Amino acid sequence: MTLALDHLPPSRRSVLQGGAAPPAKEQSRAQPRRPAAPAGIWSTGLLASAAWVALGLLTLLWPNKEAGFSDWAFTQEFGIATLVVAVLLLAIALLGGRTGRLVRTLRPAGQWLVALAAGLALWEVSTAKLGVLPSPFFAPPQSLIDVVHEDWQRLGLSTVHSLRLLANGFVLGALVGFGTGVAVGWSRIAGYWVHPLLRFLGPVPASALLPLAFFFAPSSYSAAVFLVGLATFFPVAVLTWSGVASVHKSYYDVARTLGASERFLVLRVAIPAALPQVFVGLFMGLGASFSVLITAEMMGVKAGLGWYLQWAQGWAAYANMYAALLVMAALCSGLITLLFKVRDRVLSWQKGTVKW
């Protein structure tokens, strides 16, 4: 038996002979750790870098088609900027481990970086190079740089005015909608009187009330604030009401058993349990209020992105119009991202939430 076990390792031999096996911790120490594999090259980053190099060379080496009234300024600057982006992507893709966090941040967007370069190249060729899309209705990407350079003051002032108007209307509508939803969801008396009004007036688009708002409001700004707040009010009120009304009764029974007051039940039980649906209402209200904001600014407000759009269309400055649309998209996306950050902080206990 001893001769038969001589070829086995000591740990196995001791087990078969009836002895105790060495602890797993000692076994793990005895085995040398494998060295970590070096971080590889980011292949999608290399492809994205090549795509941006192609875009830069296309912009710089292919002459623009004469448009008669414009030679598309900032073409060279746009081409150089794309080459700078290509160099940065190449460095990030090749350095690998030294830029680990940056690579992890950009890796999910790698294919989008390639698609963005391809889209900009198609845009550049169809406008500035071949003129397939007629001027001045369609402008190349470098025209947006020209707009920012020449008209940044008016565009920035319009953005500030829109943010101010949106903040006032959204906060007002969210507060009133939240209070209304809590009252309807908690009180049967409030639900009896308010519920029919919500069902009847809530689905009416806020933009349909533009004539009445501008007639009764003391100023165009206050009318726009009212319309933005109204667009926010309905989804926040309905979803807050739904959240409060759907709280399980056992929560209230346990709290009452421990001596909770009516105020405690509302503030510490009903509202926290309804917060996930409240944030859904805030997201819906933000999107609705942003669309109403642009419509209201087009009708009577003297500053704002909606006013800027109408002004650019009136002067056939379509490049300015496209720049304003991009600012609107970035602004709305940024506000939704900020709201998601707030939701993730407030509802850190909730699992499986939608990420933005």
From TrEMBL:
The keyword Acyltransferase does not apply. It holds the Pfam family BPD_transp_1. Residues 1-37 are annotated as: Disordered. It is found in: Cell membrane. It comes from the Bacteria. GO terms for biological process: transmembrane transport. SUPFAM superfamilies: MetI-like. The chain crosses the membrane at residues 39-58, 78-97, 109-126, 165-186, 198-217, 223-244, 265-295, 315-340. Residues 159-340 form the ABC transmembrane type-1 domain. CDD domains: TM_PBP2. The keyword Zinc does not apply. Gene3D superfamilies: MetI-like. This is NitT/TauT family transport system permease protein. It comes from Variovorax guangxiensis.
